[in-house]
UniProtKB/TrEMBL annotation:
Transmembrane segments: none annotated. GO terms for molecular function: iron-sulfur cluster binding; oxidoreductase activity. This is Oxidoreductase/dihydropyrimidine dehydrogenase subunit A. Pfam families: Fer4_20, Pyr_redox_2. Residues 2-81 form the Dihydroprymidine dehydrogenase domain. The lineage of its organism: Bacteria, Pseudomonadati, Pseudomonadota, Alphaproteobacteria, Acetobacterales. SUPFAM superfamilies: alpha-helical ferredoxin (SSF46548), Nucleotide-binding domain (SSF51971). It comes from Acetobacter orientalis. Residues 94-334 form the FAD/NAD(P)-binding domain. It comes from the Bacteria.
């Protein structure tokens, strides 16, 4: 349990599967994490619960496949058992939940269980947030994100309102007047810039936007470069690189400024990228986006190394260029505070 960010009782749900109590197993998972199906698919279990599994030490690194078992149990519930929780007697309370991503959905479901009526408000046209718009399609295949949302909302008492943005279409002050309570679950809506020359050229875009476009449009209509450079070392970078390769890019380079050990993408994610034909380059920091007559031509990187004192230095005199006609930036996301500055 200590290795699970959502505090799922892992031994309990596995024991239930072993005794063929699939409903009990699923309930144990969903009591702690109503989005346990999606988590089973995207959570880096190899560095969390499976890394802490006692079998890892006992059997030469052979952990129980906890993620696969969790997926098995939650999929069974969605296919055979339906919504496992019942809604309490209506309280008459109205609550606004702003943000229909995992946090907002989980909050709305738990409040609905207690008998409250929830208006789930989001800027997107579909609920799901990160699961619907921010995770590579191959991780949540067959429209799983929306199937899980439908499963969750079957509890009743939750109404989704899409296409509405905080600070543009409504304010927190307005919500506080109309509702008994307001819960903000907006996530990280901003993306970091690299702050280098050429970042505004056509063909340079945020990896988050690239993935969202893929998830919300027909993939056949989404343009992809012939040679793609992805800058970053996290799971979003890997998702974008693999998606670009699968869309038909001939060459895809994932470039990170440090080494494997510092990458936030897991070993499994890195290996998945390489299996899909992505070339990973390390110890290289972007210096500028290269263009010719205003047309994107590539990215120039400075080579780096760890010095005697342990600090990392990049040599501006030691650079190389990777030719590209598309650049995807995956250097982190940020919280946008502007819509909340008027909150009393």
């Amino acid at each position: 349990m200590q290795a699970c960010p959502t505090s799922i009782d892992i031994p309990k749900f596995i024991k239930a599967i072993a005794t063929n109590n699939m409903q009990g197993s699923a309930r144990t998972i969903l009591e702690s994490n109503i989005l346990g199906g999606a988590c089973a698919r995207v959570c880096p279990t190899e560095i969390l619960c499976e890394q802490k599994c006692v079998h890892t030490a006992r059997e030469a690194g052979q952990a129980i496949r906890i993620g696969a078992l969790q997926r098995h149990a939650t999929d069974w519930q969605m296919e055979h058992g339906g919504q496992p929780f019942t809604r309490a007697v209506a309280t008459g309370k109205r609550i606004a939940v702003v943000g229909a991503g995992p946090a907002g959905l989980a909050c709305a479901h738990r409040l609905a269980m207690h008998g409250h009526n929830i208006d789930l408000i989001d800027t997107h046209t579909l609920p799901g947030g990160l699961n619907e718009y921010g995770v590579a399609a191959y991780k949540l295949a067959d429209d799983f994100a929306q199937k899980e949302v439908d499963f969750l909302m079957a509890i009743g008492g939750i109404t989704f309102q899409g296409g509405l943005s905080l600070g543009k279409d409504f304010t927190v002050a307005q919500l506080r007047k109309e509702y008994d309570a307001v819960f903000l679950a907006v996530g990280l809506a901003g993306v970091r810039a690299m702050g280098i020359e050429g970042e505004q050229l056509d063909g340079v875009m945020d990896a988050v936007t690239f993935i969202e476009t893929l998830r919300s449009q027909d993939k056949k209509t989404v343009p992809v470069g012939r040679r793609v450079v992805v800058v970053g070392g996290g799971n979003t970078a890997v998702d974008a690189a693999v998606q670009a390769r699968r869309l038909g890019a001939e060459d895809v380079f994932l470039v990170y400024r440090r080494g494997h050990e510092q990458m936030s993408a897991t070993t499994v994610e890195r290996e998945w990228a390489q299996t899909n034909g992505v070339t990973v380059k390390l110890w290289a920091s972007p210096v500028r986006i290269v263009s010719e007559n205003g047309v994107l031509r590539g990215v120039e990187f400075a080579r780096g190394a760890i010095g005697p004192d342990g600090s990392i230095a990049y040599n501006p005199a030691d650079t190389f260029i990777i030719e590209a006609d598309m650049v995807l930036k995956a250097v982190g996301q940020t919280f946008l505070s502007t819509p909340y500055k008027q909150i009393p």
